[in-house]
Amino acid sequence: MGAAKRVGHGPAARPSRRRFVRADQVHLRRHHRGLIRHRLAEIDGLGHLGVDNVYYNGNRAAGFVKADGLAKLGIEKVPPFVTRGVVLDMTAYFGAGPVKEGTAFNKKEIDEQAAKQGIEIKKGDVVLFHTGLQALVNPVAIR
C-alpha cells in the first residue's frame, strides 16, 4: 500500500497504513474503541469512506472532519424508515471479488443477478450490492 497516510487531521491525526479511511469514525476510535466493527444494519453517509483522505466529490478530510464528527457528508438528516432490503452478489456476477474498480453495473446486470439469485426487486426495496470492497478496507477477517 505504500507510505503511511494521515488519518483525520490536526494534532490528533496519526499515520496509517490503510489507504481507505473512515472519516466519521476517527472520533469513535479515540473514545469508544469497541464500536468500530459493524454488527448491525446501518446506512453510511458519503463521508464514511475515503481513499487517501479524499472523500465523495473530492472533499478532503481536513475540510470537514472535526473532533466531534463530520461538518458535512453525514447521514444525520436522513429520516428513519423501514423497508425490505435485498443484497445482490455482484462478485458472483462478475466472477471477481472485489469487483474491479470502475466496473459499471446497470439495469441489465442488476436484473440478471437478481434473477440468478431468485430475487424479485419490488417498489420500495433497498438494493444493496456486495462488491467485495470490504476485503480492501479491512483485510483482517471479521469473526
Can you offer a commentary on this structure?
With 143 residues, this protein is of the alpha+beta class. The chain contains four helices and eight strands. The strands form four sheets. A two-stranded antiparallel ribbon has the order 1-2. It has a two-stranded antiparallel sheet with strand order 3-4.
In short:
The protein is an alpha+beta fold and 143 residues long.
List the helices and strands and how they pair.
Layout: E1 5-7, E2 14-16, E3 20-21, H1 26-31, E4 50-51, E5 65-66, E6 69-70, E7 85-89, H2 90-94, H3 107-117, E8 126-130, H4 134-137
Parallel strand pairs: 7-8
Antiparallel strand pairs: 1-2, 3-4, 5-6
Name the strands of the widest sheet in spatial order. 1-2
Question: How much helix is in the residues?
Answer: 10-25%
Distance between the termini: 24 Å
Q: What is the oligomer described by this structure?
A: single chain
Largest sheet: 2 strands, antiparallel
How many beta-strand runs?
8
Give the structural class: alpha+beta
Overall radius of gyration:
17 Å
What is the average per-residue confidence, as pLDDT, rounded to a whole number?
Answer: 75
Task: Spell the H/E element sequence.
Answer: EEEHEEEEHHEH
Shape: globular
What share of the residues does DSSP label as strand, in percent?
Answer: 15-25%
Our count of helices gives 4
Q: Note poorly predicted spans.
A: 1-16, 26-36
